Amino acid sequence: MAGGGTPSVPVAVTPPEAPKEPVKQADTQVQQASDSLRRQAALAGASRGGTLLTGGQGITAAADLARKTLLGA
To answer: CA 45, CA 37: separation in Å to the nearest integer?
Structure first.
């Protein structure tokens, strides 16, 4: 018994619809949004200037290179 029977025929599939064109924003709106984001980024970066603890030459103090031992012995 070979399991014959009628051959299965695939069902015709309709092609998907073409995508709609995206809505275009006015150039002035895009420019204003870009400027706003740029200003916010500049303000965020400016507030971090006070956290710098080293100058251009880096840390000048000697580094602590001693290895710690178990139980401080």
So the answer is: 12
Tokens linked to 34: 């870009």
Side-chain-side CA neighbours of 22 within 13 Å: the count stands at 3
Q: What is the pTM of this model?
A: 0.30
Query: Mean pLDDT by 10-residue block, N- to C-terminus, for the chain (73 residues)?
Result: 69 82 74 87 68 71 77 64
Task: Give the Cα separation of 19 and 15 in Å (integer).
Answer: 12
CA distance 31 to 29: 5
Alpha helices in the chain (DSSP H): 27-46
